[in-house]
Write a structure and sequence with these properties.
Belongs to the actin family. This protein is of the alpha+beta class. It has a domain of about 210 residues: Nucleotidyltransferase, domain 5 (2-Layer Sandwich), CATH 3.30.420. Helix content is about 30%, strand content about 20%. The chain contains nine helices and 15 strands. The strands form four sheets. It has a six-stranded mixed sheet with strand order 3-2-1-9-10-15, with helices on both faces. Strands 11, 12, 13 and 14 form a four-stranded antiparallel sheet that branches.
Length: about 325
């Protein structure tokens, strides 16, 4: 099938810059045996200990990692310690004349145009407006990272409880609109575990619009044991602020509360059999945990066979 939008065919020989790729269906989660995820621990220690790691300019030609949340969206190059760009998950359309195409406004710039129509990109942690998501991804790639999407494989994170059809839409946008040469979609919970140098853990993700508990066992999320509630950062912040606004107190946001790890560990131990060991890990990287995990994953040498190539998509 002919590639749209002038996209270079993978037969050019260097359509993916990170190695040789073999066919893997996009719904596949790479198993730890394939990735040798024991290397995650050593790689993760590098990202958390080296202050200059994210400044390696040679990595700017590698895969791009995008982590999308209800409140903010992060993007950067694989191998970096933290994302290079972060924008609010806001997309506005500044309407002009009937003949003119609406101008797209991204992030907090929408507040500069009060007459613009602001679209809700995500609801309860899931993408509900794919046109707005497409505009946001294009902005991150072309304006924030200043790269050509056709030159970089793309790793996108996926929140728990996402419908299967969302990956089909992601693939359509990535290959047919952005023209990326390779794509991989990875669960946010699994990537968060990689950030801490683990392959198994119980992930508690307290986001802006949803709080989720997802068990991860040897690099695989366990869907049937995962739980989600809409009681999350935005409603907790609002409720507590109404109680404390007259007391002169300021609040942290969600996972940033001081002492949260210690209190959570104590609460868990009180509900478990005596002698049960509980370790609550909350590193300084946790705000970008899913993104950093994606950065680690996309940098592993033996992960490179997991990319879905553009020619495979069109077959």
């Amino acid at each position: 099938m002919e590639s749209p939008h002038g996209v270079r065919s993978s037969q050019d020989g260097d359509s993916l810059r990170t190695g040789t790729y073999s066919p893997v269906f996009m719904f596949h989660e790479c198993h730890p045996d394939e990735l040798e995820l024991s290397s995650v621990s050593s790689f993760s220690s590098i990202t958390s200990s080296s202050s200059s790691f994210s400044e390696n300019s040679e990595l700017s030609s590698g895969p791009v990692v995008i982590d999308m949340g209800t409140r903010s969206c992060r993007a950067g190059f694989s191998g970096h310690r933290s994302p290079s760009a972060e924008v609010s998950t806001l997309v506005g359309y500044q309407m002009g004349s009937e003949e003119a195409r609406p101008e797209v406004v991204i992030g907090e710039e929408v507040f500069l145009y009060p007459d613009s129509e602001t679209m809700e990109v995500m609801h309860n942690g899931l993408i509900i407006n794919w046109e707005a998501a497409e505009s946001l991804w294009k902005h991150l790639l072309e304006h924030e990272l200043q790269v050509n999407p056709e030159d970089h494989p793309l790793l996108l994170t996926e929140p728990p409880f996402s419908p299967t059809c969302s990956r089909e839409i992601i693939a359509e946008i990535a290959f047919e609109v952005l023209g990326t040469p390779g794509l991989f979609v990875a669960p946010q919970s699994v990537l968060s575990v990689y950030t801490h140098g683990k392959i198994s853990a119980l992930v508690l993700d307290m986001g802006h619009a949803a709080t989720r508990a997802v068990p991860v066992l040897e690099g695989r999320s366990i869907a049937y044991s995962s739980k989600q509630t809409g009681v999350a950062g935005h409603c907790l912040t609002w409720y507590l602020s109404t109680l404390l606004e007259d007391m002169g107190h300021t609040l942290g946001e969600g996972m940033s509360h001081v002492g949260l790890e210690k209190r959570l560990c104590h609460e868990l131990q009180s509900h478990l059999p005596s002698g049960t060991m509980v370790e609550v890990v909350g590193s300084a990287l946790r705000r970008h945990a899913a993104w950093t995990g994606g950065s680690i994953l996309a940098s592993l040498h033996n992960f490179q066979s997991c990319w879905i190539r553009q020619d495979e998509y069109y077959e």
